[in-house]
Amino acid sequence: MTHPIIESLRGGLVVSCQAYPGEPLRHPETMAQMAQAAVLGGAVGIRCQGLADIAAIKGQVGVPVIGIWKDGHEGVFITPTLRHARCCMTAGADIIALDATRRPRPDGLTYAQNVEALHSEGALVMADCGSFEDARMAVDAGSDIISTTLSGYTGEREKTTGPDIELLERMVATFPHTPVICEGRIHTPQDLKLVMDKGAWCAVVGTAITHPTTITSWFAQQCK
Ligand SMILES: CC(=O)N[C@H](C=O)[C@@H](O)[C@H](O)[C@H](O)COP(=O)(O)O
């Protein structure tokens, strides 16, 4: 049976609210306000980064929160170790998203060992995959959700202009018993409709909703 928290995301839009060190919106309260605004617009879940943001957002919204902790910029950096994952749990995340590539992890544990430990502690795990082979590994490891998050960022898949539809379709067709989230480069409502039509359990949109600097640049480029 699908866990009620995952069931509540089915068919809906999850909004990723993230701002990075040095960026003007980098403040937990600002991200919590962003998350509240997204929920008012119809988001069924929020994805967010960093312990302070997870806690601030959990304090303000009733929808499930997918928590990550990005540490570093190279190799495995999305919730790279079991320690990072446990901290996300403690901060209040309902679902912990982890890098689910087949690359070595900084603490020497395998992805499967992370899932096993987190499940024994009551967490739900979302696998951020960069390829079909990652998705297979993540399903074999017992992930609660698999996603296309890292497609185009790990060298295994070309970085498509929009979402990686080909990978999404293959994951949906091959793993019918594991919810597949489409995440990454969904930039328009039309992109979102397409990924839902292709069988995504739900979709995560970040930049196109919550990163005004990038959105502004899309418009500004048209003035040059
Ligand atoms: C690759 C990576 O680090 N992705 C991150 C994962 O949390 C975020 O930077 C993205 O904003 C998120 O995946 C949503 O994608 P998009 O912003 O394209 O809608």
TrEMBL record:
Q: Which domain of life does the UniProt lineage start with?
A: Bacteria
Protein name from the UniProt record: Putative N-acetylmannosamine-6-phosphate 2-epimerase
The record describes the protein's role as:
Converts N-acetylmannosamine-6-phosphate (ManNAc-6-P) to N-acetylglucosamine-6-phosphate (GlcNAc-6-P).
Transmembrane helix among the record's keywords?
no
In the UniProt record, the gene name given for this protein reads nanE
Enzyme Commission number(s) from the entry: 5.1.3.9
Q: Does the keyword Isomerase apply?
A: yes
Molecular functions (GO terms): N-acylglucosamine-6-phosphate 2-epimerase activity
Q: What keywords tag this UniProt record?
A: Carbohydrate metabolism, Isomerase
Which pathway features in its UniProt record?
Answer: Amino-sugar metabolism; N-acetylneuraminate degradation; D-fructose 6-phosphate from N-acetylneuraminate: step 3/5
**Family as reported in the entry's similarity comment:** Belongs to the NanE family.
SUPFAM superfamilies according to UniProt: Ribulose-phoshate binding barrel
Q: What's its top-level EC category? A: isomerase
Entry's Pfam families? NanE
Which InterPro entries does the UniProt entry name for this protein?
Aldolase_TIM, NanE, RibuloseP-bd_barrel
What reaction gets catalysed by this protein? an N-acyl-D-glucosamine 6-phosphate = an N-acyl-D-mannosamine 6-phosphate
